[in-house]
Design goal:
445 residues; alpha+beta; 8-stranded mixed beta sheet
């Protein structure tokens, strides 16, 4: 028996509107949530058109589909999803002449998108986790809908039939978990690493921290709940409610400070040219369906949001620095940069809110434009909820009494990404000090 996808009713009208504008084909992403019993799709988002793509498309084939453009769009959209939501599939609307080639194109896109998203993740899916993704095909002329699924963990997976069922107010009363997590991460930059290894160093450091988050204890309403217990146990479930309203639960995260005496530890000595320090607190949120969700599902969704939001902000910051300062900057000074602050935007007819990141100098209008481009969704200024305030940080001077020989031999660069504690503010600082020949960093496993 194939998967059943329960789909927000508003998506039907959205896809219908797209089909009336299709000349040859249009592709897009399906956003939703997986569970062992059911899968939910709460939003469909078309692939934004490429401005420079004005070539005539061959109407007899779908070879002109820009796979790289679609996977890039999926990566950008993935950053805007809170915990519990993911890119659950791909859709394509074609004219009748292209219908025969649609399934092959969809299969290729689904595996490409999943491969792109998996590369960015700092967490691994659980063994029992659902690995099937939806492939939706619609004919623009007949409006016929064909839904299939593919197991993305199996490269040889063949299409399986799947049910596509619309449901009103599907996510109008989903459950939300909120938390603020204190972060204190030290990441060494090895002296033997070249500039292009910076991203690898940071990812390795974040991977160690992600493992700590995975092993943390989560308190819901001040209690540790059994993994297999129902999240909404003892709470009244709203029925027949078409108005969007979410039940929020504040979650406390307890991270392990040190290993017990039963754990053996080893020390590693490494020659480093600098280090990265992440300190502060991040605002996190995850959503879960209201069909008897398990505590394990909800906590897993929140863990992934904690990991994703810090990783995504680091990526955005470094992308911005490369664009503005160039990848070959050599003269490091003690500089302070601001990590993008997190904000939330509601989805029409849903209790779920999508996420985005904004630099301090970035106008709200740019956030609105990004939602239109990435999610094909208009956003009112008054609907944008900023989760974290932001403060400015001054520039610290470089130490002048540095020996010239030492300065030539080795540059010690320290990137300080400071996240403000009390308001969930995220501040990033790039610190480079021409100080010493070697820095020894000791790590305990």
């Amino acid at each position: 028996m194939g998967r059943t996808y329960f789909v927000e009713e508003a998506i039907s009208q959205y896809l219908s509107n797209l089909s009336t504008k299709v000349q040859l084909y249009v592709t897009g992403l399906l956003i939703g949530q997986c569970s062992m019993q059911k899968d939910y799709i709460i939003q469909a988002v078309r692939t934004p058109p490429k401005e420079e793509q004005k070539e005539v498309i061959n109407p007899s084939k779908l070879e002109s589909i820009d796979e790289e453009w679609i996977t890039t769009h999926a990566s950008q959209v993935s950053r805007m999803l809170p915990g519990g939501l993911l890119v659950l599939g791909v859709f394509i609307i074609t004219c009748p002449e292209l219908s025969k080639d649609s399934q092959n194109a969809l299969r290729k896109l689904i595996f490409s998108v999943e491969k792109s998203l998996t590369k960015r993740r700092l967490w691994k899916p659980a063994e029992e986790e659902v690995s099937e993704r939806a492939a939706l095909q619609i004919c623009s002329a007949t409006k016929k809908v064909v839904c299939r699924s593919y197991d993305v963990q199996d490269p040889k997976s063949s299409a399986k039939p799947a049910d596509w069922k619309y449901q009103s107010a599907l996510s109008a009363s989903w459950f939300a978990l909120d938390c603020a997590v204190n972060v204190n991460i030290h990441i060494p930059l090895l002296a033997t690493s070249s500039n292009h290894d910076l991203e690898k160093n940071i990812k390795n450091g974040l991977n160690r921290w992600a493992k700590q988050i995975e092993d943390s204890v989560f308190l819901i309403h001040g209690q540790v709940k059994d993994d297999d217990a129902e999240l909404l146990e003892g709470q009244k479930k709203s029925r027949g409610n078409t108005q969007s309203s979410s039940q929020f639960s504040d979650v406390k995260v307890l991270t392990q400070l040190s290993q017990g005496s039963s754990h053996r530890s080893t020390a590693t000595v490494q020659v480093c040219s600098g280090s990265i320090n992440l300190k502060g607190a991040v605002k996190c949120r995850a959503y879960t369906h209201n069909n008897k969700p398990k505590v394990k599902e909800a906590i897993q969704a929140l863990k992934r949001d904690i990991i994703n939001t810090l990783s995504d902000r680091c990526e955005i910051l470094f992308e911005d620095l490369i664009i503005n300062e160039g990848p070959h900057k050599k003269d490091f000074e003690r500089e302070y940069h601001v990590l993008p602050q997190r904000l939330f935007v509601p989805v029409a007819g849903s209790s779920v809110m999508l996420s985005d990141y904004r630099f301090g100098e970035e106008a709200i209008g740019e956030v609105q434009e990004r939602f239109v481009e990435m999610l094909d969704q208009s956003v009112q200024v008054e609907d944008i909820q900023i989760a974290e305030d932001i403060n400015t940080v001054g520039i610290c001077p470089v130490t002048d009494n540095v020996d010239d020989t030492q300065q030539k031999q080795l540059t010690k660069a320290t990137l300080l990404l400071k996240l403000q504690q009390n308001m969930g503010v995220v501040i990033a600082a790039v610190v480079a000090v021409f100080a010493s020949v070697f820095s020894f960093n000791y790590f305990s496993d």
